[in-house]
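Input sequence (344 aa), recorded before submission:
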Amino acid sequence: MSRRNKWVLALMLLLGVAIFAFSLRDIKFSVLINDFVHINFWWFGVAVLCMVIYLGLEAVIVKVFISDRIQGFTFKDAIRIPLVEQLFNGITPFSSGGQPAQLIALMQTGVDAGKASSVLLMKFVVFQSMIVINFLVALVIGFNYIQDKLHALAWLVVFGFTIHLAVIVGLLMVMFWHAFTKRAVAVVLYPMRWFMKRERFDRMAHNIDSKIDSFYAESVRISGKGKLMLKVFGITFVQLLFYYLIPYFIMLALGYTTANIVMVTSLHVLIVMVISLFPIPGGSGGAEYSFEMIFKSYIASNSKLVLAMILWRLLTYYFGMLAGLVAMVIRPDKVVEEPDSINE
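Predicted structure, token format:
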């Protein structure tokens, strides 16, 4: 990690402590400790297991994609990728640092940069597609609830969905309307020539153009591998399901055993969509506020509501970042790529 990234990580940890402290301002510390001591640690362990499975299944997806092209890629190398992604997603606005960090991590194992970029783009397409599909289902189930309780937040959810859908549409255009997409991107980029030096603009345009070509080539290659894509879509669906179930098991741990698993899971899907709109790394502030506002109707006790929020945030945000720090110091295995076959 660069010195700048270390400073940002330290800042995000301090910001998290400050947000937790602010949330606890009206709650006696003794009450919070009493609530924590009396939680059902078995159910909380299930919530922890859900997060571990979520990260493990993403590693499986990475290994499936890479092993389709390269022999000798180990699961140890595969598990490093989602952990590094969690770390850099957590310290960059809009989770923008996750993709470059994964690319570097794959290159450290000896995977060619072009192949690594293509694999990560395909993984991103599948992941975003499943998020959009899950969101549509959750929208049908939980939108009326959010609209009744929080009018403004409901429209933030819709706005977040629009952005994710636009990303998917753009990627699908690259896959199926390659030439048109390149011309459209060139038109969109053209006004930037007025504000950038010619050399810098040309370098940026060439980089974007090459990424479009690389992604298109990978999509053509993999389009004939229906079983592989079906397998990855299935794994991604299960992966996200475990992630979305985390608040439900936290509620069970706090004694709310009558919680509706479908509604709670759907509300978590909508929360995740809202978090993606906040520019602060990890959606800090917005994530905690959204959780408390949405789940306060389910968790009557204010101290338990804040405790649920803290446990949820520790699992879904800070756990991945700390695991990413561990992954950064693990020495990767090396693969030796064979030259591409003529038929590939």
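Checked by second reader. Residues 40-329 form one domain.
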